[in-house]
Automatic annotation (TrEMBL):
Keywords: Membrane, Transmembrane, Transmembrane helix. Residues 437-454 have a biased composition (Gly residues). Signal peptide: none annotated. Residues 174-195, 297-314 have a biased composition (Basic and acidic residues). Residues 174-201, 297-316, 437-469 are annotated as: Disordered. The chain crosses the membrane at residues 24-46, 52-73, 137-157. It comes from the Bacteria. This is Chromosome partition protein Smc.
Length: 547
């Protein structure tokens, strides 16, 4: 076989192979896309497999079609190529005869080879076997677009409602994962703050600094002590004011946003936990939360083996406990815990109706631990406020001792807390006659009465945070006593009755006025005592005449 004829036949065979494989691939691709189109509605019955179905409908057909085309593909033979060349050159089986020479072993072989070599120059194989891939490409792309459109439109049509249910379950799962992640982050944050400690790190630092100052005081350094006391008092007053303002804001929010529940409607356990929390203690509360966590863990572990009646009773008890904790949290200002308990109670109700979910029960158990830490943090903030008030009272008494040159750090060597300093300073003031008594003979700067002291040891050069200002407060009720008027002859003792009523109203508003005006704790007792001593002067003329 000559060189030119061999090359032409090989070219024809390659074009036949490409055309043959292309036809097989396009036909297989159309068939696979048709099957994929029929499989897309399966997502209406199996919405959880939606992603797998859609990916399979788009990716699988090209791959499967290639495998099918390769499976059924047959390589073209030399006679197949020779027939194409004969058609291209216009020869009648010349090239086909050329391919048969080896088997026929005919004597005219050289003549056939020579003729084929001459005719191969005029053979246009491309024209004889035209190959245009655009038709097959258009068919494949059209089928792919139809499937893509179906994959986009099918999920929008939910004839059985299962897609909606699957979406809701997926959203719930994502929400649960986000909630657990937030709980873990908050729990780690609370653990770093160490709410189980007596006081927060900030208050411990301030108290330690003040205690060190008290131990180093020198009774002869009055001005220096006064400056240091003013600085310390400013720090503690600012800290107390910030916390008291937050406490007042929480109180107003609770009064405006929640309905108060009378104590008569609370059970004994709730009353006990509330009273302990007000004192900065959480023993009963932590015990209750620990028991709730254990019940939730037991439900998670034994939900499949538990008796249905027992399971329902356990869920009901847990819901009642959570409602109790929600009430306690709202009354104490722990809004985050209250919302957490409300949502947990709603989830338990849903669990009873829809079935138990282990992941949700585990998340609820984690919420009990987080709630315990939140309550512990709240109790610590209450203890912090008490420590600040105790420190401010101690500094108030220290100022009096410093004025009398009696503030000596060595006088309280065994003092380890602000309560110890306050107790010791109170004893020292009592010996000096500077206590809060009802009067009598004192050494000056004492209670009411005839004193024997001279001018108080004061230093006007000391800078303080005192700001003179006039503000309207609950004490305005007292000013109205001077404008009582009437016409005609009044009832006997009418002014006394009216006076007592208004004094009682003022007394009721004193505590709230103190908090709203952010009066430092050192002045609380004196203010309350003043209003407690208000009364109608003995022998006063209470008759009301004509105007």
């Amino acid at each position: 076989m000559g060189t030119n004829s061999t090359r032409v036949i090989a070219t024809a065979r390659r074009r036949i192979a490409v055309a043959r494989f292309g036809r097989l691939y396009v036909n297989a691709l159309l068939g696979c896309f048709g099957i994929a189109l029929c499989c897309i509605p399966l997502l209406w019955w199996y919405p959880k497999q939606t992603e797998a179905i859609l990916i399979g409908a788009l990716i699988a057909p090209p791959i499967v079609a290639a495998m099918i085309a390769g499976l059924f593909f047959r390589r073209p033979t030399a006679p197949d190529g020779a027939r194409v060349v004969d058609r291209a050159a216009g020869t009648k089986d010349l090239f086909l005869s050329l391919t048969e020479l080896e088997r026929a072993n005919a004597g005219f072989g050289p003549l056939v080879v020579a003729s084929a070599e001459q005719a191969s120059a005029n053979a246009n194989v491309v024209k004889a076997l035209p190959f245009d891939p655009r038709r097959g490409l258009v068919k494949g792309v059209t089928a792919a677009l139809i499937v893509v459109g179906a994959t986009l439109l099918a999920p929008m049509w939910d004839p059985f409602g299962k897609i909606t249910q699957a979406k809701a379950a997926e959203e719930k799962k994502e929400e649960l994962a986000q909630r657990r992640e937030a709980q873990t982050s908050r729990l780690e944050e609370l653990k770093r703050e160490a709410p189980e400690a007596e006081n927060s790190q900030q208050i411990e630092r301030l108290t330690k600094e003040l205690s060190n100052f008290f131990r180093k005081t020198d009774p002869t350094q009055v001005k220096k002590n006064a400056r240091q006391l003013a600085m310390q008092q400013k720090k503690f007053s600012d800290e107390w004011r910030a916390r008291a303002e937050k406490k007042l804001a929480e109180k107003m929010r609770r009064e405006q946003g929640t309905q108060k529940i009378g104590r008569g409607q609370q059970d004994e356990m709730l009353r006990k936990m509330s009273d302990e929390l007000k004192k900065g203690k959480t023993e009963s509360l932590q015990k209750e939360l620990s028991e709730m966590k254990k019940e939730l863990e037991r439900l998670t572990r034994d939900k499949d083996s538990m008796d249905p009646v027992e399971k329902e009773q356990t869920l009901q008890k847990l819901r009642r406990r959570m409602e109790r904790m929600e009430q306690l949290a709202r009354e104490s200002g722990a809004q985050q815990v209250a919302d957490m308990m409300k949502k947990a109670s709603e989830q338990l109700s849903a669990q009873a109706e829809q079935g138990m979910n282990s992941e949700e029960l585990a998340a609820l158990a984690e919420e009990m631990e987080l709630s315990g830490m939140e309550f512990e943090s709240l109790a610590q903030s209450i203890r912090d406020l008490e420590s600040l008030e105790e420190s401010l009272k101690a500094m108030q008494m220290a100022k009096k001792l410093n004025s009398a040159e009696k503030l000596d750090g060595g006088s309280c060597e065994g003092c380890s807390s602000m309560a110890d300093y306050a107790k010791r300073y109170a004893e020292m003031l009592a010996k000096m006659g500077k206590g809060n008594g009802n009067g009598g003979d004192g050494d000056g700067m004492g209670g009411r009465g005839q004193g024997r002291g001279g001018i108080a040891a004061e230093d006007d050069s000391v800078e303080t945070d005192y700001t003179p200002e006039n503000s309207k407060s609950a004490l305005l009720a007292g000013k109205l006593l001077l404008s009582l008027k009437t016409k005609g002859e009044g009832r006997e003792n009418a002014a006394v009755v009216n006076y007592d009523e208004q004094i009682e109203a003022v007394r009721d508003g004193v505590s709230e006025a103190i908090l709203k005006e952010q009066v430092p704790p050192g002045y609380h007792d004196d203010i309350r005592k003043y209003f407690d001593t208000l009364s109608v002067p003995t022998g006063a003329n209470t008759d009301v005449g004509y105007e």
